[in-house]
Amino acid sequence: MSYFKVQTIAVRVGAVALVVMGYHWYGWPGVAGAVGALVMWMLLHFTRMLQILRRASSRPKGHVDSSVMLNARLHPGVSLMQVIALTRSLGELRSVEGEQPEVFRWADTGQSFVECEFSNGKLAAWRLDRPPEAALDAAP
Description:
By secondary structure, the protein is an alpha+beta fold. The chain has helices at residues 3-26, 28-57, 67-73, 80-87, 133-138; strands spanning 92-93, 102-107, 113-119, 122-129. Strands 1-2-3-4 form a four-stranded antiparallel β-sheet, covered by helices on one side.
């Protein structure tokens, strides 16, 4: 069972447990409080997602300040939204749309790029590709 499935199940079980505990301790006002807390939690996540996408919309698609720094900050299991927050840019889709795994590319001005492979929205693999040193020396 993957981490993504375990996390999804744990969140759902936790939400149900919160509502049940609210009813057990305080009755219907407890249920209303628990549901209100869950709605607030969902609104906070939605607001964060909108803020990340608003920042990313003002930058070129697939651009990152430093591919090397992005490569150093990535680790398996990071969500696509977290990578977009790191890069402050939407990735350039390199795979067929709607097909798993999804492959996105972020490149910097020095012709280096990072290609990230996402399975079910979580980072599965990535690679840093840098131009040869000779090509860097010949560039004006």
